[in-house]
Amino acid sequence: MSTKKIITCISCPMGCDCDTENLESITCSAGRKYVQNELTNPQRVVTTTIRVKGSNGRSSSLLPVRTSTAIPKNDIFKLMDLTRKVEVELSADSISSIKCGDIIFKDIGGSGIDLIATSSK
Ligand code: SF4
After folding, report:
1. Nearest residue CA, atom 4 of ligand 1?
2. Which of 2, 60, 113, 120 has a CB 3.0–4.6 Å from the CB of 53, allowing a cystine?
């Protein structure tokens, strides 16, 4: 039985199966870079929700967000702890005008990572 480790590259829709022990066999440089990153420092864009509260203190809802960049997999739980504690207070007008792609929270926990809305209100 072979123990060859194969990683499916997700850098483009081709979804090539890449041999991690023979990077030269990977069809393109983007794939080689993806596999190298997966082996040494795998990173992911994280999607979650944060609480958004109206400045009148009455309305509160969850807003779907994503990180502005991919973050190391080892930091995902730390980020999730931070997002759980976040409650963004906005005016009622601001809440109703949130658009997909808006930066909702800048530099969470001093990480340099922003949280970006993934849906409109
Ligand atoms: S190896 Fe290259 S062609 Fe294949 S999925 Fe990755 S980026 Fe696309």
Report:
1. 16
2. 60
Distances (CA, A) of 88 to 46, 79, 95, 102: 18, 16, 10, 13
Could you report the per-residue pLDDT of 58-102, keeping only the tens digit for each? 667 899 999 999 999 999 999 999 999 988 888 777 777 889 999
d(CA 105, CA 69): 13
3-state SS, residue 9: coil
Domain annotation for the chain: domains and CATH numbers = 6-40 (no CATH), 44-117 (3.10.530.10)
Nearest CA to ligand 1 atom 8: 12
CA-based R_g, the chain, Å:
19
User: Residue 100: which of 79, 83, 115 has the closest Cα?
Assistant: 115
